[in-house]
UniProtKB/TrEMBL annotation:
Organism, as annotated: Lactuca virosa
Protein name in UniProt: Pep3/Vps18/deep orange domain-containing protein
Domain annotation Pep3/Vps18 beta-propeller: ranges: 17-359
Keyword Acetylation included in the entry's annotation: no
UniProt-recorded Gene Ontology molecular function terms: protein-macromolecule adaptor activity; zinc ion binding
All copies of domain Pep3/Vps18 RING C-terminal, residue ranges: 863-901
Length: 990
């Protein structure tokens, strides 16, 4: 225990009366001390930095005057003092800002012994409700506003009519309620403590006690000066003390209590106790205190010239305070004590001096006091560090351990961090064989550890796991009644599982699973594996137990790897095919190809005839709903369809185009060769016919269909539309089969064959099927059909003649057009200009040089004239076309022109008209010379169309005005910026 003193005494001021007699009374509040002297002076000391002054209250009063009592509010602003002299008594009010006091006229002649301030509502400017207790046993209510300079009112409240003894102490507290403000008032005389309470005005509350009894506590005994004090904590009174003749009556205050007294009042006093003065005498003469001060945990009792500090809880004297008095005042001793609740200070005073009593860490040893009294909760509440709390827990733990309450002891031991080591505590329980208590200790210890103690948490959790398993095994081995054992067994199982759930993140996975396995706790092993998301172990266990639904539920959980679906698919589908397939169909992330082994394993097992094939159901879901394109999936579904007795589903599957509407994709995804082999093996002939047709093997399809159904063969033969020969061949196969398979009379067979010809829509004739009949068949039987066929042929011959006549007439017209074309000509005006050089076409001059490969007629240059009216010199046209066409074509034109030049032959051509045809001067020339052939090619290259009206002009629209070769010329026209440099003149050569 700390040996430093909690309460210390310092001399605050010597000769505080300032020569105005001796000190008779004192009050304090908010670092303000007000003294009353024997000569009627009021002396104010403001240690908070405010104004201090001396006021003479005896002015205007005859004879000797003395201050009887002085009172200061908790804020230090309001002061009430009573003066007693030969002329009677007067009560004064003074504000801290006033220069002189005001007498309360309505209280003249009354001696005020006690004042109760309204601590909750008082302000610096207004006292609000104040209750005064007088010498003749009366209570008054007053209120003063600083700005009014006088009291607002003085109201009579209550009077002790039966025993009119003086009121020695008053205290008031208020609390807000739904109905208004509730007042709690305590008043004491030398032998009684009265309590008043009510809602509303004070005047109304006290008026109600006229017709009912007042609740009071009476203690016999004589005491010179009775006092009543409240201890204020956080602006609220929490306990009280009454200095009475029998002892110190004290207790707690609960202003929210609902306990009522016999007269209907609320009893707000709790935990009442009486401290007898005999406990303070140490066996000697009992001396009663002359004054009392109340702190949070102690009473300060003024006995003689010393103050004894008594612990309120233990009722033991803990300290004695001595005062440094002068020789003049030592004989008279200390007069009284004063409390400054706002500043948390206590004062003592004698006739000349003021002493200050300071408090330092008052509650530091209270934990020990409460601990000695075995009030553990209060002891813990007053512990200031973990070492002290350990002492409290240790005492509780040892007490419980001694009384064999091991579970309670384990809980307290778990809270200890320093007083005992972990090993010492565990050895206590191991030594007496209390495994259950040890487990409780470990669990509680886990709760007190912080997350940073990872290693310790893991070790303790593992130990607790083993203790749980040991407890479970012991319960199974006990020979107790089954009902009791099962109840406790189930309880410990549930508790163990809850522990695993809470500790899953701190337990070592491998170690814990090994423990569970070694103890044979398979269910708990699965439970822990589920907590640790070891889904493979959990699923394997459920499959072994035959619980497919629970295994599938685990697989459906978020975060479970999809690979486990494929791993356990064979076992699950064999265990419960319906639930497994339903589970698969709820997911879109499965790859059906990886489920094929499981589905094939299931399909290999025998199934009832009317049983729903779950694999087919799932594959249909994949193909139709998920639009799966995996060939393996389609092949498997095809194989399952092929094994069914009814081939309708197989045919529908084969006819369905799964890839319809998809660009660059197949119409089906199964392997047709595999499908054909499978259907042939299973003898699904209609399916084989469809597959042959799909593979464009129409002959095989028709041949097979004829074995099954001739109608099917006809339908297959009719599918071929783009190959007329093949279609006819297929129909001949059908016709041969029909003829050969018909039974009955010969004439009936012939009629059926002729009827078959009508179904072919004219594709087959009677002559096509005649070879299929026997040689001895009579021609008369086919007379009608043959005549009909001959008539058709005759009509076709007549139609062919008409077409030939039309062709001959058309040829004659073309021949005439060619002859007319050879005689065509064009008229050129004498002013007609060349479209390129803009020179007159029909003029001659020195500037024109005869184009190579051409001859002239007189002085005229060769030229071309087009039907649109445009005319060009031959050389100009060559230059223009080679410039505007692509390089390869231009090179070809120049090469032809070069060949003409090298041949040096002058043809007899004068003018060339559009199309490259030259006017012929000698009609006797019938053979085409090589030079004419080259010239014809050149004409086709440059004069096939007018360059201004044909495609050449259209293609020039997209060409830039400035060619890449002319960019340097365009750049030379750029205007130079002024900032580039000084201007330079440009010289022009004329």
């Amino acid at each position: 225990m700390d040996l430093r003193q909690v309460f210390t005494v310092d001399l605050l001021e010597r000769y505080a009366a300032k020569g105005h007699g001796v000190i008779t009374c004192m009050a304090s509040g908010n670092d303000v001390i007000v003294l009353g002297t024997s000569t009627g002076w009021l002396i104010r000391h403001d240690f908070g930095g405010g104004d201090s002054y001396d006021t003479d209250l005896s002015t205007g009063r005859a004879g000797e005057q003395s201050i009887h009592r002085v009172f200061v509010d908790p804020g230090g602003s309001h002061c009430i003092a009573t003066v007693i002299g030969t002329g009677g008594s007067d009560t004064y009010y003074m504000h801290a800002k006033w220069s002189k006091p005001r007498v309360l006229v309505k209280l003249r002649g009354l001696v005020v012994n006690a004042v109760a301030w309204n601590r909750q509502q008082i302000t610096e400017a207004s006292t609000r409700e104040v209750i005064l207790g007088t010498q003749n046993g009366q209570l008054y209510e007053i209120a003063v506003d600083e700005k009014d300079k006088r009291e607002k009112y003085v109201k009579f409240l209550f009077e002790l009519s039966e025993f009119p003894v003086p009121f020695e102490g008053l205290q008031m507290e208020t609390a807000s309620s739904n109905n208004g403000t509730r007042y709690y008032i305590m008043a004491v005389t030398s032998t009684r403590l009265y309590s008043f309470t009510g809602i509303g005005l004070l005047e109304t509350i006290f008026a109600s006690y006229v017709e009912r009894a007042v609740h009071f506590m009476e203690l016999p005994g004589e005491i010179p000066n009775s006092e009543l004090h409240f201890f204020i904590k956080q602006r609220r009174a929490v306990h009280f003390a009454w200095l009475s003749g029998a002892g110190i009556y004290h207790g707690g205050l609960n202003f929210g209590a609902q306990n009522r007294t016999p007269n209907g009042d609320i009893n707000f006093v709790e935990n009442k106790a009486l401290l007898s003065y005999s406990k303070l005498s140490d066996g000697g003469e009992v001396v009663k205190p002359s004054s009392i001060a109340l702190s949070e945990f102690h009473f300060l009792l003024l006995i003689g010239n010393r103050v004894k500090v008594v612990n309120r809880i233990s009722e033991q004297i803990v300290e004695e305070l001595q005062f440094d008095q002068t020789s003049e005042t030592a004989s008279k001793g200390i007069i009284g004590l004063s409390i400054d609740a706002s500043a948390g200070l206590f004062y003592a005073y004698d006739e000349n001096s003021i002493f200050q009593v300071s408090v330092t860490d008052e509650g530091r040893d209270m934990w020990k006091v409460y601990l000695d009294l075995k009030e553990y909760a209060a002891a813990l509440a007053n512990c200031s560090d973990p070492f002290k709390r350990d002492q409290v827990y240790l005492v509780q733990a040892e007490a419980a351990f001694s009384s064999k309450d091991f579970f309670r002891a384990a809980s307290f031991f778990a809270k200890i961090n320093y007083a005992l080591s972990f090993e010492e505590i565990t050895l206590k329980f191991i030594g007496i064989g209390e495994q259950d208590a040890l487990r409780t200790f470990l669990l509680r210890k886990l709760d007190s550890l912080v997350k940073d103690d990872k290693c310790q948490i893991m070790m303790i959790s593992t130990w607790a796991t083993e203790l749980y398993l040991d407890k479970i095994n012991r319960l199974l081995l006990e020979d107790d009644s089954p009902d009791k054992r099962n109840s406790e067994y189930q309880s410990i199982i549930m508790e163990f599982r809850a522990f695993l759930s809470d500790s899953k993140d701190v337990l070592d996975e491998a170690t814990t699973m090994t423990l569970l396995e070694s103890y044979g706790r398979v269910d708990e092993l699965v439970y822990f594996a589920s907590l640790k998301e070891q889904h493979e172990i959990v699923i394997h266990h459920y499959i072994q137990q035959g619980e497919a639904k629970r295994a599938l539920d685990v697989l459906q959980k978020p975060g479970v790897s999809v690979d486990l679906q494929y791993k356990f698919a064979p076992d699950l589908i064999m265990l419960d095919a319906y639930e497994t397939v339903e589970s698969w169909m709820t997911r879109n992330d499965l790859n059906p190809r990886k489920l094929i082994p499981a589905m094939m394993s299931y399909s290999s097992e025998p199934h009832a005839k009317n049983e729903t094939h779950e694999v087919i159901k799932y594959l249909e879901y994949c193909v139709h709903r998920l639009q799966n394109e995996d060939p393996g999936v389609h092949n498997l579904l095809l194989s399952l369809y092929a094994k069914k007795e009814d081939d309708s589903a197989l045919l529908r599957f084969l006819q369905c185009k799964f890839g319809k509407g998809r660009s660059n994709g197949p119409d089906f995804f199964y392997d047709p060769k595999y499908a054909l082999r499978l259907c042939l093996k299973e003898k699904r002939m209609r399916a084989c016919v469809h597959i042959y047709s799909m593979m464009f093997m129409h002959e095989e399809a028709v041949a097979l269909a004829l074995q099954v159904d001739p109608e099917l063969a006809m339908a297959e033969a009719d599918k071929v539309e783009d190959d007329e020969d093949l279609r006819k061949k297929l129909w001949l196969m059908v016709a041969k089969h029909v003829v050969e398979q018909e039974k009955g009379t010969k004439r009936e067979n012939i009629r059926k064959a002729i009827a078959f010809l009508k179904e072919t829509d004219g594709l087959l004739k009677i002559e096509d099927i005649l070879p299929f009949f026997p040689d001895f068949a009579l021609i008369d039987d086919f007379k009608e059909a043959i005549c009909s066929s001959l008539e058709d042929y005759n009509q076709q011959i007549e139609k062919l003649k008409e077409e030939m006549n039309d062709a001959t007439h058309g040829a004659d017209n073309i021949r005439n057009d060619i002859s007319a074309l050879a005689q065509r000509y064009a008229v050129v005006d004498r002013d007609e200009e060349c479209g390129v050089c803009r020179r007159v076409i029909l003029s001659a001059g020195a500037d024109y040089r005869i184009s190579r490969g051409y001859t002239t007629m007189g002085p005229l240059s060769p030229f071309y004239v087009f039907p649109c009216g445009h005319a060009f010199h031959a050389q100009c046209l060559v230059a223009h076309v080679t410039k505007c066409t692509d390089p390869s074509q231009a090179e070809h034109i120049l090469d032809l022109q070069k060949q003409l030049t090298l041949m040096s032959i002058e043809p007899n051509v004068n003018v060339n008209v559009n199309g490259g045809l030259n006017g012929v001067a000698d009609d006797s020339i019938t053979s085409v010379a090589p030079v004419d052939k080259i010239r014809s090619e050149l004409d086709d290259a440059i004069a096939s169309e007018c360059p201004f009206c044909g495609d050449l002009m259209i293609s020039e629209v997209s060409k830039p005005f400035v060619s890449p070769e002319e960019i340097y010329l365009a750049s030379s026209w750029d205007i130079m910026s002024k900032n580039v440099g000084p201007e330079k003149g440009i010289s022009f050569v004329v």
